[in-house]
Amino acid sequence: MIHTHILGFPRIGAQRELKFALEAHWRGELDRPALEAIGRDLRARHWALQRDAGLDCVSVGDFAFYDHVASHIQLLGCEPARFGFSGREDELERHFTLARGVGQPALEMTKWFDTNYHYLVPEFLPDTRFRLASGRLFAELAEARALGHRVKATLLGPLSFLWLGKEKGSQPFDRLALLEHLLPVYGQVLQRLKAEGAEWVQVDEPILGLDLPGPWRAAFEAAYIALASAGARLMLATYFSPLADQLQLACRLPVDGLHIDAVRAPDEILRVADWLPAHKHLSVGIIDGRNIWRCDPDRALATLKPLRERRDTLWLAPSCSLLHVPVSLAGETSAHSGIDSELGHWLAFATEKLDELALLKRALADGEDSVRNELAIARRHLADRRASARVSNPAVAARLRSLGSNADRRSAPFPRRQARQRARFGLPPLPTTTIGSFPQTREIRAARAAHKRGEIGGGAYQAAMEAEITLAVRKQEALGLDVLVHGEAERNDMVEYFGELLDGYAFSANGWVQSYGSRCVKPPIIFGDVSRPRPMTVAWTCFAQSLTPRPMKGMLTGPVTLLQWSFVRDDQPRSDTALQIALAIRDEVADLEEAGIGIIQVDEPAIREGLPLRRAGWRDYLAWASRAFRVAASAVANDTQIHTHMCYSEFNDILPEIAAMDADVITIETSRSGMELLGAFGEFRYPNEIGPGVYDIHSPRVPDIGEMVTLLDKARRVIPVENLWVNPDCGLKTRGWPETEAALRNMVAAAHEVRRRLAAAS
């Protein structure tokens, strides 16, 4: 028997309905009942899509108004005590407080494994206790059943939940010790899900794809013996990485089914099929849940047929939740989409992936003759892609072959460059700057949309953007910032903007993917060889520099981030594509320098994110990723200062490779963690200059001067003060001007206070 299911569906809606509803609610324009109604409508729509595609059950529990990990914090009754909740507050408003911060810094945010999704990090104390504290999951289960659906509920597994959290408090402890208190609550959840009609419960344990310490591995068997006693039918789900040395462990756990990622770990499929007991259900993640390319049905069927011969029952699914891809290609019919009919035939978004599952099911269950026409269409489109002249550019290939061995090296070591740069710019101690973007106001978005629709011409659009750039420059001057940015008014997104200007990229009209909360990104699609036909940022940056005598940073996105935050072609190694992008950015860096821009920031927030989850793959990845950055940034004079920015990742274990990138200045996120991350940079003795973020831009909260002074004092204890910069955690695109100005005013005042102390002490 062949079954089909998914591990999760995008939450945001085909038209970003959830985003707009959330933001209206936060502005006070949409009350909670109306927000809840929009959530119910989205869930109903998405369940209907799954039913209409013939899936054997719909997925319940994958929806969240902000973040699914935060939903589990509430389900399990472990909201941090520091928020001071009395329990009488509305549950959803508490959810938003955890995410956005009110009176307290919000929960720390970091990357969900190696994706561009950000989750809210649970906080644990030695005395943290758990309880079943939310009925939202069960209410959604009732919703789905009332609509006539068979239901598979979705939970983040207990070990992954603990692993993804952080230990807090004054004394060190092992959060794994909390498992014995957590398991009974999971048992209550499972019992109630079964009692209320969930036919299966999918329990996600993606940490089984990591290099786990021995005690964590050992904890799985006892934990799942306890969970099995609840009586629910459990589908253990792993994804993103091979099981490797945990394969046998996963196969012998007392669960009713096991899901594996056959896209990321194709070599493990037959081993799992052999090791998994015959009475257990095998779910094969055969459709790529992380990328948007059409499935090759012949390759998929070649993988599945031997499994079909081995097992009476086989489940087919995407490799992971479809959270990481856009909702539907149906939104790409407008003239503003860069996805033309040819390219569209090469792609499959979330809704189309449901249809691909249905095709594979019919081919396996009823024979390929039953879907002869559908298979012929798929084969034709795949052949067209392979043969398309749009994919290959001989000039790009020739440039890669001719790249010299020293193309990724600066002409002098950092100390000599630092002296030249200090002489050129004459900045004070603890120079202040921002990460690049300023608020994307309604006026900016309206002008961009009007230009895209053809309602205003290029001249009018340029004038509108120059007015916004002028505003940003004047505000920065008034605030007293030392190094300015142009504010990126003309940029829709730090990746999409460049994707629209590079050859080899295509862009969608509505291919939105959730990054966190209401924040959505529209990743470009890398379908062919990448090159830069013309300058992309020079005119805007030079205009901004003409407005002020203060240094103006040129702002670029780095090659690894342009790769990692795009949907990347799957027909050549990612390292080759990264190097192609690096050469395009190298050309832009050279043009900025020639135009007189002396400080150039090449952002690489995705460096850590791109690491393979298994340590065995790290060396190769870090070698080509750091080289790609250096190729992009190294063709400049010694007195040109190269900055980079990295955010919301743990860097402790790759600091040598970050240092090897040899940026003159690195800015990093540290405020939500209270400068915790910076300690590793101090212990490592990071050799270049560093700007630890002193306030969290993902919250509307405005920190006071004293709070930022405290963070700077922490920074001074681990980093030489002469190498310290002062800046926010990240770009300010998502904030409003009032809170932005207030926070930056306090940031500059904090820097001045610390400078005063330094002067007094000298």
List keywords for this structure.
22 strands, 2 domains, TIM Barrel, 762 residues
Report what the structure shows.
The chain is of the alpha/beta class. It folds into two domains: 2-387, TIM Barrel; 415-761, TIM Barrel (Alpha-Beta Barrel). Helices cover 42% and strands 12% of the residues. The protein is built from 27 helices and 22 strands. The strands form six sheets. It has an eight-stranded parallel β-sheet with strand order 1-12-11-10-9-8-6-2. Strands 17-19-20-21-22 form a five-stranded parallel β-sheet. Strands 13-16-18 form a three-stranded mixed β-sheet. Helix 1 packs antiparallel against helix 2, helix 7 (179-195) packs parallel to helix 8 (214-228) and helix 11 packs across helix 13 (350-366). The N and C termini lie far apart (79 Å). The mean pLDDT is 94.
Short description:
By secondary structure, the protein is α/β, with parallel strands linked by helices. It is 42% helix and 12% strand. It folds into 2 domains: 2-387, TIM Barrel (Alpha-Beta Barrel); 415-761, TIM Barrel (Alpha-Beta Barrel), CATH 3.20.20.210.
Counting DSSP H or I runs of 4 or more residues, the number of helices is: 27
Poorly predicted parts: none
Count of DSSP strands: 22
Label the structural class: alpha/beta
Radius of gyration from the alpha-carbon trace, in angstroms:
26 Å
CATH topology name of the largest domain:
TIM Barrel
- Helical fraction equals 40-55%
Task: Identify the strand order in the major beta sheet.
Answer: 1-12-11-10-9-8-6-2
Q: Can you name the CATH architecture of the largest domain?
A: Alpha-Beta Barrel
The residue-averaged pLDDT reads: 94
CATH class of the largest domain: Alpha Beta
Strand-residue proportion? 5-15%
Distance, first to last CA: 79 Å
Number of domains: 2
Characterize the overall form. globular
What can be said about the biggest beta sheet? Answer: 8 strands, parallel
